[in-house]
Each structure stands twice: as C-alpha cells, then as structure tokens.
Amino acid sequence: MEKIVVLDFGGQYNQLIARRVRECNVYCEIVPYDKAEEMLKNERPNGIIFTGGPNSVFSEASPHIYPEIFDLGIPILGICYGCQLMAYTLGGTVTTAPHSEYGKTETHYDKTSPLFSNILNMPDFAISWMSHTDYISEAPEGFRVTAHTENCPIAAMENPERKLYAVQFHPEVNHTEYGIAMIDSFVRNVCGCKGDWQMEGFIEKTVAEIRREVGDGNVVLGLSGGVDSSVAAALISRAIGKRLTCVFVDQGLMRKDEGDFVEETFTKLFDMNFVRINCQQEFYQKLKGVVDPEEKRHIIGEEFYRVFWNKIRENYATGYFAQGTIYPDRIESGKGDAAVIKTHHNQVKRPENIKFQGVIEPLKDLFKDEVRKVGDLLGIPKQLVWRQPFPGPGLGVRIIGDITEEKVKLLQEADAVLRDEMAKNGYEKELSQFFAVLPGIKTVGVMGDGRTYEQLVAIRAVTTDDFMTADWAKIPYDILGRVSNRIINEVDGINRVVYDITSKPPGTVEWE
Ligand code: XMP
Question: Of 254, 296, 341, 344, which is best to mutate to test ligand 1, by the most ligand atoms within 8 angstroms of its C-beta?
Fold first, then answer.
C-alpha cells in the first residue's frame, strides 16, 4: 500500500497535512519525530513530510532529526520548521529573520521545480501563508532556491537528485494559493504515488485485522447513535457478526424517536447482538431539581458510566472492548490546559477493575469525513451517517433550569418540527447544526380569544467549519415564520418562538 508519513515536530497544522495527503488518495500517518528512526527500520514509506513547529532549530532543546534519514533515498518535503531543519541538518544556515513574516505573503515561484511545474494555470507570483521568525539565509550545498518573497530569500529549496524538497510557507492551509496542488505534486510527481487508497480497501483490511485480533472471542461496544460509534459497530459487525454486542443506553434525553430509530437500524440492518438499556426514569430522577449546567453534565456523565458499566460487568466483561475513537479524538486528547468553558466527554472512561482482553478502535486513524465515507459504504442510513453533532448530555443541556419528563417531551416535539421544516426546505446540509432550546420561561400570549401563559422555545442554528467559532445562520424570515407557526400550532404548551442571533464567541453553540 502506498503511504506517506508525516513526521510531527509539534506544528499546529499537522492533521491538516495528513488530510491533504489523504485527499490525494494516498494513505498517510502522523508519527512523532523521535520515533522516525525506529519506524524507518521496519518500513519504507513512499515519502516523508516534516511538519512545522514552534521552535528554533539552533536551540539544543528543539526537536532534531537523525541525519541519515536524508540518505535513505525516500523523498522528503520539509514544511516551515521542517524546511529549516532540513537546511540546518544538511549544513545550510538558519538565522533569526530581520523581518518575521506572518500571514498572506506574495511569493515568487520558479516553475521549473517539480513541486510547481505541473500545476495548471499557476502564475509566477502567488500568495503563500507564512508564519516564521527564523529563516534560511543560506541553502545547503547541492540545493537550489525555487521560491522567494520580499523578506525571505529562500521560501523554497530543493535537491532533486536526493529527492529533498522544502518550503518555508504552509502549502496545507487554504490561504496558500495552489498549496494543495503542491502537496499533490509532491505525492504524485516526486514520490511517484498513483493514489489508489480507497475506503473499500480500508474496510477489507480492517475487517481482516479485527478477525485476526479477536479470533473466536467476543466484542462489546458502547453505541451512542452518533456517527463514530455507529460506523465502528457496522464495521465490527461485518467482521464478527453476532459475537459483537452493542450496548445502547437510552437515558431519555435524545431527540424524538431517536432511541427507536437506532434500535431499528442496528437490529434490522446489521448482524449483531443489540442491547438497549431503557433508563429514562432513573436519569430524570437523578436530575430532579438540578439547574447548574456543569452539575447536570456531571450527573448525566456519572449516571451513564454507572448504568453502562454495570451492564457490561454483569455480562460482557470477558472479551474485547470496542469504541469509535477517531483520529482527531486521539490528537486533541493530548492538548494542554485551556480554560474549561464546558466539559465535553468524547471518550468513554473505563473502570480500572474491568480487564478486557484488548481494546479495538477500528476508526482510530480516520478523519470524520472518512468515517462518513466508510459509513456510507457499509450501508448505514444517511440520516445516521450525516447527522449533526449532538452533545453527550443530549437535551439535558438544551433544557435550561431543571429537567422534567414533560419538558423533554415538549422540547422533542418542537425540535422535530424544526428538523422537519429544515429538511423540507433543503437547509439540512447548509447548516452545521440546528436545534430547539427550552429556556424554561413562560410568557403571556393570546390564542383564539383566550389568554395563554405557556413555554417559550428558542431556535438555534449555526454555520461553522470547526465548532470553535460559529456564525448564527441567516435563515430566511419566511422559513423561520413557518417554523414558528407550526411549533405554536402543533405543540401543545408552547406559545412563543424566538431566534437566537448570537455568534460564537461570545455565545457558545449550546446554551449550557
Ligand atoms: P459549544 O456549546 O461548546 O459546542 O460551543 C460546540 C460543539 O460541541 C457540542 N457539544 C458537546 N458535545 N459533549 C459532546 O460530546 C458535550 O458535553 C457537548 N457540549 C457541546 C455542541 O453540540 C457543538 O456541536
């Protein structure tokens, strides 16, 4: 299998580089820089990419690379810090730049370079995205300079005989014009990859691996009904059928009819042992009178933990444990200590006193869009595969103040109307997330000739690329009007609908 390895020197765009390579249909893995030597003793990837990083190469404490890596004959592309590291290790000069460069920078390219020569309509000058305080002032012997900017004399350099290439800018970010094509050039022209990595191949390979690992053993998986655990379930089911047990906890805080939908999907379409734990009342009981958002999150998390692990301890603690961890979960979980705005729990905590034979994470190397592709290929309904993110604590954080069964029902009904209207008007794909919120406020209204005093519902809809920031969605007034009319007419107990026009920041997507 063709493969490119991204050597991680601590840059912020490492995942993006890997995604770009995979978009060329070439499998790509990120490996810490200090594991490179060991890894390359055992395998020979088609190419290596050095990432950026926050350090200066001339500081002794900075990450360095063993020099023999450049003699293996494997094509290497250095990006930003990786570019400087290549220059430094091979005898060039790296110094603090007289002028740091940040952001969009006019760059001149020498289009005879194999990195730039096959790119359709690429001009001699184009914008690149720079972010550096050091620069290469002198290229190593045998290298020629193939790009420069006003303040950076060596914005790209290469030694084609040794298959070594380096760029000071970041081709992986969208702001670099033709950047993605440059990565494609490296992968295809320089590394000679054909680009035949397809999700079908991934499925076959993973199914075989699961069979090999599990043998004739059993696997238990916590199914939440979200994309990742659903795809993991379908994949493992393909490998071992009924020896997979999926445990699905219905805590009564899901969208309308969702528990039934998940159960129907996985019992009818897939071969597995499906266990549904109906513990709605227990959750409502535990949440009675609790209004503080973090306390609610805590209770929901703890209760889930208790119910889920009790079930597993009783019946399934002897085999393998599977979960739908995906690549970004693994990378993000290593991150530092940013301020806690709200506690998200994405990975299932495991009690120490349950010893499984092993842990299976079949999606651990995939990005979300790749997981969705696998889900489509495995025949999971689109409604599940393309579903929006849904918070772990569910409607619990969309009911402000205390949670009761009645409030859950009211919110589920209002939310179902909203979802129906969005789907009918083709807004499902355009919006990143939309939902109804029950703020727990009663307002006065008039219906027929009578006074009403009922609940208010808020509609929240956002567009975003990464959920770190988000814009409130500019849904046309007539559609909002229809949503409002329908909710008030169809949902008994609601007499007013408002639309949330707060972006993130300063708001968050969810209200709690
Ligand atoms: P916020 O509200 O933090 O939401 O702007 C960003 C994204 O995260 C989802 N979200 C959660 N997901 N557990 C989760 O798994 C949680 O506790 C949680 N809280 C918010 C939210 O729906 C949005 O997509």
Answer: 344
Q: At what angle do helices 199-214 and 227-240 cross, to 10 degrees?
A: 60
Question: Could you check whether 199-385 and 405-499 share the same CATH topology?
Answer: no
**Cβ atoms of 50 and 14 closer than 8 Å:** no
The catalytic position among 172, 370, 454, 512 is 172
Per-residue pLDDT, averaged over 63-92, amounts to: 97
Higher-pLDDT residue of 228 and 469 is: 228
Amino acid at 250: D
**Fold (CATH) for 3-190:** Rossmann fold (3.40.50)
Regarding the domain delimited by 199-385, which CATH topology (the fold level of the hierarchy) does it fall under? Rossmann fold (3.40.50)
The answer to whether residue 24 is catalytic is no
Of 170, 172, 130, nearest in space to 151 by CA: 130
Angstrom distance (rounded) from CA 482 to CA 115: 53
Catalytic residue among 80, 83, 191, 193: 80
Q: How far is the CA of 391 from the centre of ligand 1 (A)?
A: 5
**What's the gap in Å between 58 CA and the centre of ligand 1?**
41
What's the token pair of residue 76? 């290497």
Phi-psi region of 411 (alpha: psi -120 to 50; beta: other; left: phi over 0): alpha
The CA-atom distances, in angstroms, between 109 and each of 117, 183, 251, 351, 400 are 10, 15, 58, 56, 56
Q: Is 346 in the pocket of ligand 1 (CB under 6 A)?
A: yes
Tokens linked to 119: 């790119």
CATH 3.30.300.10 fits 405-499, yes or no: yes
Mean pLDDT of 66-72: 97
What is the greatest pairwise CA distance in the chain?
A: 89
510 lines ligand 1 (CB under 6 A): yes
> Which residue's alpha carbon is nearest to atom 21 within ligand 1?
391
Is 172 considered catalytic here?
yes
The answer to whether 323 and 222 are in contact (CB under 8 A) is: yes
Exposure pattern of 431-454 as b/e (b: 16+ CB <10 Å)?
A: ebbbbbbbeeeeeeeeeeeeebeb
User: Among the atoms of ligand 1, which is closest to the Cα of residue 390?
Assistant: 22
Dump pLDDT digits (tens) for 176-235: 999 999 999 999 999 999 999 888 888 999 999 999 999 999 999 999 999 999 999 999
- The full set of domain ranges for the chain reads 3-190, 199-385, 405-499
Residue 175 bears catalytic tag? no
Q: How many helices, marked H, and strands, marked E, lie in the chain?
A: 14, 19
In 325-414, beta strands by DSSP E: 358-360
